[in-house]
Amino acid sequence: MAQTTxxxxxxxxxxxxxxxxxxxxxxxxxxxLECGARRFGAVRLAVLVSGTGSILEAMLRAGxxxxxxxxxxxxxxxxxxxxxxxxxxxxARSDWVGGSSDSGRRFDREGYSCELAAVLGGRGxxxxxxxGFGTVLDGSFFEWSGGRYRGRVLNTHPSLLPAFxxxxxxxxxxxxxAAESGCTVHVAIPEVDAGPVLAxxxxxxxxxxxxxxxxxxxxxxxRELYPATIAAFLERCAGEAAGDDARREVELExxxxxxxx
Length: 261
Prior knowledge:
Layout: E1 2-5, H1 17-20, H2 25-40, E2 45-49, H3 54-61, E3 66-71, H4 76-83, E4 87-91, E5 97-101, E6 104-107, H5 109-122, E7 127-131, H6 139-142, H7 144-147, E8 153-157, H8 169-175, E9 180-187, E10 197-204, H9 211-252
Parallel strand pairs: 2-3, 2-7, 3-4, 7-8
Antiparallel strand pairs: 1-4, 5-6, 8-9, 9-10
Helix pairs in contact: 3-9
């Protein structure tokens, strides 16, 4: 069952002055929405979180027009969104665990994926950005309602894909003796870390690096690269939508007698 909060449910102090600014979260949110509307049109963006929300904070600092933040578990990321005046929704993963399998209780991945897609679709979401979201979604999410989210879900990964896919990318790069790692922003598809690459930035592996130090430098790059790539993607979507609207207007425009096209 999805649990929703309204757009304005502030908890002072949890979000921090760096992102909200001196005018407060609601006035800054209004300003960002106005700016986003001019730049990105009416494309509605949802961000999916599971943890601290540091990537979400970077998106908000960059001025991305986040319309909805969803989560699969209670987490700080939902509080960040609420303090920024953004609607939040919790579609709890735990509600979709039941029955039994050889390894324990079974997670209904397909059911969860369909429910999350329906919740986002019901709020008019058109583009989804994963931001540390901890649940792998199956194909039913992308194909929901005739493929609404096919090619419209973005994710980030701490390696230069296709090198070192999977959950332990930083560790794997170090174990392999790689001279560099980095950050990849890609279109998410049902196969993990296998979608089309949108942007990459290399991060050198330094002498003495361990998994923590290398990952922290990759995260610093990610917080710049990911918001910029999302912004470019939204602008492209807005341009496509504007083109579609213009074509529809031409098609609906009444012909004058003797007029040809």
